[in-house]
Amino acid sequence: DIAALSSMFLTFQCFNIYREQSRQTGKTTWAAGELDINWNIRCRNADIAIVNFDDSAAKENLQKVIEYSEYLPEYLKVFKLNVKEHSDNSIDIEDSGEIGKTVKVATNKVFGNRLIAKTVGTTPAMANKVGKGGTFSIEFFDEVAVYPNLELVLGAAAPAFKTASDNAKKGGFPTYIYLTSTPPDMGSPQGEYLYKLVKVNALKFEPYMFDLSTAQLKALQKSVAKNSYFYVSYSYKELGFSDEWALEHFENSGSQWLFE
User: Fold this and answer.
1) β-strands 81-85, 91-95: how paired?
2) CB 153 within 8 A of CB 91
3) What pLDDT sits at residue 258?
């Protein structure tokens, strides 16, 4: 859909994005597909953070990335290969038949990439630990509108991203921050923060921007935005959903966003 294409268009050029959509419209699914491509093939020696409100959701998203990898043709399943090094510095690459995986970490042994599931927790102290224990060249924060201490979470994760991002850019590898959310409660601290981060300070992505080069997008962002994010959001009709779907969804969720 148009939102998925917009997101991929931006992240493949290493832009940070905030993607806002209603529930059950595919935003996390598409984001997981992008993470799969980067973890399996595009990145090198990268730590990729998959962050959610609680452990179960973070682990579920990590598992989703791995499951998508299983649908690849056999010759593209790099994540299942293992590198065996010899004393003469030669190597053998063999099919291990499995992924190097624990409950919260999945490792691509050939390219040295790791998917790491993390949680923001419920306290400031827990939020402050999100960026600790790694330097992440890609950070995926799912459903950020429900994070307690959201501003602290993103602030704490920034140093772990900056170093890895600079190194990834030097090597020509992917690096970006990807935020997703359903429309936030504007009366909550998270909603107020997201309003300032996105609606006030970010650059709204428009379809005409598909025709712009990376240099032109950077120049436009620098001249208009007050931060490094692109804001990706489309109406339910632009996403291919009907009025009937919208009415049913509104009755079930009360999401006024559908009619904005």
Assistant:
1) antiparallel
2) no
3) 40
**126, 99 Cβ separation under 8 angstroms:** no
Nearest-angstrom CA–CA distance, 51 and 53? 7
Closest by CA position to 158, among listed 190, 131, 197 = 131
Q: Give how far Cα 116 sits from Cα of 44, 64, 192, Å.
A: 15, 13, 29
**What's the rounded Cα separation, in Å, for the pair 182 and 159?**
26
Q: What are 29-57's pLDDT values in tens digits?
A: 999 999 999 999 999 999 999 999 989 99
Predicted TM-score (pTM) of this structure: 0.89
Exposure on the CB side of residue 24, measured as CA atoms within 13 A: 10
Sign of the four-CA dihedral 12, 15, 21, 27: positive
Q: 């927790």: which residue's tokens?
A: 121
Q: Percent helix, strand and coil across the chain, each rounded to 5? A: 45, 20, 35
